[in-house]
Amino acid sequence: MAFLNDETRVMLEDSVDKFLGAHYDFHQRRAWVEQEPGYNREHWQQFAELGWLGLPFAERHGGLGGDISDTLGLMRRFGSALVVEPYMSVVGLGGQAIALADNQDAADSLLPELVAGNAMPVLAWEESISRGNPEHLATSARRIDGGWRLEGEKVAVVGGDLASHFVVSAQAFEDDAGPVVELFLVHADELQVTGFPTMDGHRGARLTLAAVDVDDSRRLTRNGRGAEVLRQVLEQGIMMMAAEAVGAMQTLLRRTLDYTRTRRQFGVPIASFQVLQHRMVDMYIAMKNLEHLLEATASRWDQSPSHARDSALLKAQLCQSGRYVGQQAVQLHGGIGMTDELDVGHYFKRLTALGLLFGDESYHLKRAWAAL
Amino acid sequence: MAFLNDETRVMLEDSVDKFLGAHYDFHQRRAWVEQEPGYNREHWQQFAELGWLGLPFAERHGGLGGDISDTLGLMRRFGSALVVEPYMSVVGLGGQAIALADNQDAADSLLPELVAGNAMPVLAWEESISRGNPEHLATSARRIDGGWRLEGEKVAVVGGDLASHFVVSAQAFEDDAGPVVELFLVHADELQVTGFPTMDGHRGARLTLAAVDVDDSRRLTRNGRGAEVLRQVLEQGIMMMAAEAVGAMQTLLRRTLDYTRTRRQFGVPIASFQVLQHRMVDMYIAMKNLEHLLEATASRWDQSPSHARDSALLKAQLCQSGRYVGQQAVQLHGGIGMTDELDVGHYFKRLTALGLLFGDESYHLKRAWAAL
Amino acid sequence: METKSVDLQAFRQEVRAFIEQEADESIREAGRKMTSFFPPFEQCMRWHRKLHARGWSAASWPEQYGGPGWSREQKRIFEEECRIAGVPRLLPQGLGMVGPAIMKFGTDEQKRRFLPGIASGEDFWAQGYSEPNAGSDLASLACRAERRDDHYVINGSKTWTTYAHHANRMFLLVRTSNEGKPQQGISFFLIDRLDRPGLEIRPIIGLDGFPEQCDVFFDNVEVPLDCCLGEENQGWTVAKYLLEHERGGSASFAATFGMELNRIRERAAELGDGFGGIMRDDPVFQQRFTRLYLEVAALDATESRFAAMEKGSPESGPMSSMIKITAMETLQRITELAVEVEGSPTLTLQLAALTVGAGVAPEGPEQALTVMPKYLNNRAATIFGGSNEIQRNIIAKMLLG
Amino acid sequence: METKSVDLQAFRQEVRAFIEQEADESIREAGRKMTSFFPPFEQCMRWHRKLHARGWSAASWPEQYGGPGWSREQKRIFEEECRIAGVPRLLPQGLGMVGPAIMKFGTDEQKRRFLPGIASGEDFWAQGYSEPNAGSDLASLACRAERRDDHYVINGSKTWTTYAHHANRMFLLVRTSNEGKPQQGISFFLIDRLDRPGLEIRPIIGLDGFPEQCDVFFDNVEVPLDCCLGEENQGWTVAKYLLEHERGGSASFAATFGMELNRIRERAAELGDGFGGIMRDDPVFQQRFTRLYLEVAALDATESRFAAMEKGSPESGPMSSMIKITAMETLQRITELAVEVEGSPTLTLQLAALTVGAGVAPEGPEQALTVMPKYLNNRAATIFGGSNEIQRNIIAKMLLG
Prior knowledge:
The complex is a heterotetramer, with 2 copies of chain A (372 residues) and 2 copies of chain C (401 residues).
Chain A lengths: L5 H18 L2 H9 L6 H9 L18 H14 L5 H14 L3 H12 L5 E4 L15 E5 L2 E12 L6 E9 L6 E8 L4 E6 L5 E13 L10 H37 L1 E2 L2 E2 L4 H30 L4 H26 L9 H14 L4 H10 L2
Parallel strand pairs in A: 1-4, 2-4
Antiparallel strand pairs in A: 2-3, 3-7, 4-5, 6-7, 8-9
Helix pairs in contact in A: 1-4, 4-7, 5-6, 5-7, 7-8, 7-9, 7-10, 8-9, 9-10, 9-11
Chain C lengths: L1 H21 L2 H8 L8 H13 L18 H14 L6 H14 L2 H13 L4 E4 L15 E5 L2 E8 L10 E7 L10 E6 L7 E7 L5 E14 L3 E2 L5 H14 L4 H18 L12 H25 L8 H27 L8 H4 L16 H7 L10 H13 L1
Parallel strand pairs in C: 1-4
Antiparallel strand pairs in C: 2-3, 3-7, 4-5, 5-8, 6-7
Helix pairs in contact in C: 1-4, 2-3, 5-6, 5-7, 8-9, 8-10, 9-10, 10-12, 10-13
């Protein structure tokens, strides 16, 4: 992988800070969220122009060839500004799945389109039985003449409402050896998409695949490598979520510090109450724990791309830290923290969603134990 | 069961308060603990004279016929004063096991001796594999001519160092139907007792039963009723422990409140720090939770003597409350709380021991789930 | 003894039959779709009026004001049957708060004017305590009323007034004097009409996307002098009485939480654990569930103790604070577990499906519908009604003297 | 690169061989029987002197004062091998605390007199900071020294001075002036002999039944004027430097805790769960264990970040407080889990079996021997060295400015 040179990296970070500072007002965000398509389409084009959509992809696909830490830097800033554009869904999950899979033709045709802001492939792996485990799925792919027939249902497809394509995981029955997990590429108009807004201002969908037939060119992985690709993509996804969470927590902590310094009760700023001070210290510690663990995980990811334990621990920490910081930010803001009008509640809800997506704390602690 | 009339009850409570107030100095206690037999033998005689040793037993055995709430009132006061005499071991466990078992002759001969302060029967049920579960044991009782041969090892026998008799649980092989749990009476000189002091100032023992032969008159239960008797005795024992813990926590909380009001740091009493105030509030809540749950459990015990769930929950609450109150009392006392010289550390250690005895929190939560 | 127990059995049957017959589908739907302390308004008030028609709306009121004259046992049975049937709890602002305050401090005229409408459900009272700059700190109230001839003029604002946008009446605390201690210049007002000029109500959208609380603004709002409950400047006494009445409450949190836990356990038996097994069989779930069950058992024991305690005894204040602390924290942990048990389907925002009577089917499992809004809304449980930090301060004061 | 990695391999072999040969059974026994931050004294100092004979005692000291001149990697390898072999950690008072302070603030004469004895292990220094009425609040120190002619006269007392009953030297903070801010009148003294008239040391028995801390009393104790490290009344500067040096430390808590966790997991594979199974297979145990494992992983990440951070940068103070908070609380939870895993055998009091060299076999399993004393002693982890409450105050100050 070609890493960004220092100059490009600084330019990138600069462009992100500038863009978000100039364009990402919380009150405008509420308007984008409430209208179709649930985000600002102009932003997406600007993301493309600024090169962000190509950040992790190879140069031959029009990308910048950045490494994971570049992506994490971006996600942290997105978390800070509560960015609602489906960057993780499209670039981090859908795009990465295609990039890591075995189908070069598909990658060559779709990734440049993604990078240009035209195609929005989204990963559809979760099912009502999976609860975080990508290898526990019921969607099936059965051989038909010259292709595959997909049947099943996918839930909680983040960004699914906006997708142009889906990368769908399925139990593929190829020979007598029993099914293996493979990935398939499906166009959004080939299956039934039930879209809905989610509580964190994003969009999601349920997909129904009732005898969706695709030809062999849509098969993205071979020899059961779908499971491995999913694992890698989700592990990267968890790092991206953690980075976003760190950014959100930084903002939340800052908001809480500012609010408690201004808000007065019993004649003094409430920041003068030791109990609240220590609460904010524990928020700080929770945030730092995730930040440091993410840093350590990302540095080891560079060295070896398989780290089931690290990523499971990271997600568990994300659940713990996100919950604590989110809940306490609301608590310390009091009533005003419970309103839709203040951004604090929206950060809290986003952290809640990040905790629930891709398996909860208990699931990941089990996964980590198994990998100790 | 004949309950105490109100007058007797008031007299009893009065006598306990008076005795402990007059005789139970913490520094003297340290001397008793460090010398043989590890408690004050004169106290034991006074306990007998004051009727305390007979409190729960029938009048025909020389007892007062008190009910569980009388015993709990006594135990609470014992907990408050950190009483080290083996009341729970002898009266609550050993004596109760004999009283609830099926062997009238044994009860008629031994209980009056216990009540008089002469005999000290102690219950030996725990084994290295049992971890709280009285039905998970390896000690065996096999039929020999006219009696039984006992083999096995008992550990953590509380008060075992001081016992005159042991009530020993064993897997009895009577017929072909497979073993059932029964209780047997063994004299202290019939088996090997390895006594030791425990970290809470009490005494314990490990018992080795290498082919201990007893005749049929020593069999205390029949038809596998040993398990049921054990259950009842341990459930009562858990209530007694909870009462003792409530008493200990009351004292600890009082000590902590007093200390923080006097101790100054940064020019003010440390009780003025809100973080410590809330910590003490949480100690209070933890104590009250146990106190209230004990009250509710005891009131239902009167109505029905089988309540596996209630007692499991009570023990789990004891573990939680005792740990929190004990740890925080030490923390809030700072360095001085870490010393042998101050009573605070001894209350903490006693609460630690009460938490560990008869199965820990995780065990009892499992037991409670199974009985929900 | 015999006769009495037969009576109670019969009473229970009577209650059950009444609920069976009178609680129609939309009332039950409102019960199912409760996502905060406060049930959906319209259906709840309709149920209130139905109960009133049967003489049962004001269960704990004295008979002279329209109470049914039930024994404690009967009240318990009535509550139990309502809980089991899942009908909405009646709103407490009138029946549990201002009503008892009027009984205790009101003039005969005030009692005559206001109590019947509360009992019948014709009126709904909003509670105006909090202000933008006085949350848990009532002593620093700024909303003020000045006497002018034969009326008061109110200026200022109130916030977190539940369902004010549905209310036709309002009780509130206003500053009527700046002399003496801050608490001494407060009066307790009863406002008989909310369509008075200068009075504006603006709903606040909550974390779940629905309005429940409101801001209320007073711009030279005129109210008659007889709107004062108790003496002028003595509103603190009324408020304190009412707070104690509210905090301890007669409602059993433990019983309600127990039902929530049952529901979670039932769902755990239906959902997988992600590894091919059933969640109910997962020992980690079991341990966490049982911990919460224990919390509820301890709360239940504390509530029993509190119920048996004399109101106004030295321990009853701290004990009611303890109940507020432990109940609200337990509630939050229960809602948290419920979210984790249902998992990612709870992320779907379902404003339409949550609206009673809209006839919109939920996306995903029906049982997951209310789980996330409950989690979000109940973050307020440790904030409103005196935050848990304030409750701990109260107990600390008692402990440290 | 090649050469260097070969060197490190060879270095590791060299360290391992040295430990293998020189760490005799009683030194290893002392390592096994550590029940607090401080290993058994005699064996630890003997190991210190053996290391010194090889030139390895002062691993992080500059070569000019007797350091071995190791790279960071070498130090890490050395520590790792020591940890794996289970030899006692060297006592920090000299090597990690007063030694570096002398290097930074000492006169040439002080360096010449004191540093060699610290490096060699000939001297042991006690630390006199805390006082009966000044625990975490050093500014209110009362132990005072007055200048009289050519010496100071010290009066007052110190407490929680670890191993003072074994020490021949002592560094302490004394008040030398009452002017200015309370912190300004404090001086940092080096006492070269503890057999001075008027100086009395009384061991304090701890919760585990052993003496580790001491009270030290000064009754007109005379010390020479040149005992002052740094300038008179500027002791706070020295103390602050030293505190930061101490708190962040170079020791990796995470690595040590990881070994403790491994030990617990091994034991869980040997012990039953009370229901016929093995504790290691109990998902409740696994979840709890993994939670702690995660805490240690996060601590490890924080320690790495801290190690790479410039000392004295604005975040390094709060970060060292964060490490103290999280490490000590994690340590306490680990000791708590260890107790529960071993269960009731940990209740046995085993003073004799815990005494290194006494040759007394433990009652019950060997692995359970140190578990309870560790739990008890480590209650102090959140008290001494600036309680966790104080550490949180420090971070709060940074956050709130």
